[in-house]
Design goal:
The chain has about 220 residues and is α/β, with parallel strands linked by helices. The chain is built from ten helices and eight strands. It has an eight-stranded parallel β-barrel with strand order 1-2-3-4-5-6-7-8, surrounded by four helices. The structure holds cytidine-5'-monophosphate (C5P).
Length: about 220
Amino acid sequence: MSRPIFVAIDTPDLARAKAIAQRVRNHVGGLKLGLEFFCANGHAGVREMAAIGLPIFLDLKLHDIPNTVAKAVQSLGPLKPAILTIHASGGRAMMEDAKAAAPIGTKVVAVTVLTSLDGSDLTSVGLPDDPHAQVVRLTALAREAGIDGIVCSGNEVAAARKAWPGGYFVVPGVRPAGGDVGDQKRVMTPRAALDAGASILVIGRPITAAADPDAAARAIEATL
Ligand code: C5P
């Protein structure tokens, strides 16, 4: 991908989302819209964002029985998202059916373990107390299911790329050198994440919360 930065537009406010996207459009490769945006603005909102002319990453993290997820992916098909997320913990059949239901050009990418969960959270839902082992296990399952890749942290991407050379790796939580890390705990610079094997980088607040989002996006792009 020529421009590897997808800017995370985390707002339910369509006018604000459009304003940010317009300002950064020449320095990013795509727009990531999540549940917050989608629940507020639906397909019509996504279409308005797509009209800005950049690829759309729909970060909806789908997780349900295979039939329901496949039907949901089909319903999203007309939006032709460049990237769509599902939960790997929905299981192999769910991932296979999601991929089969997706438009040809859509990359289906799985979330393994949410970074908001630690070892004790995993045991509380009956899983072994080791997030890393669970990430490795679900990454292998995602690969076997034939989806395109996974979402992973900058710290995990080198190992993931080694284990899955043809995988598509979406890396959030990257921060420009010297930048404010916010609530992201384990951060890496954009350049380091790409060198470690990231396919695309998801960057939100370092761009969207900057006084000048266009300058912020341009400055990050210049480091790549
Ligand atoms: O503002 P910031 O750069 O932290 O935004 C990162 C984006 O990536 C947000 O949309 C967030 O939901 C998403 N994300 C993340 N960490 C993960 C998975 C997704 O920050 N492990």
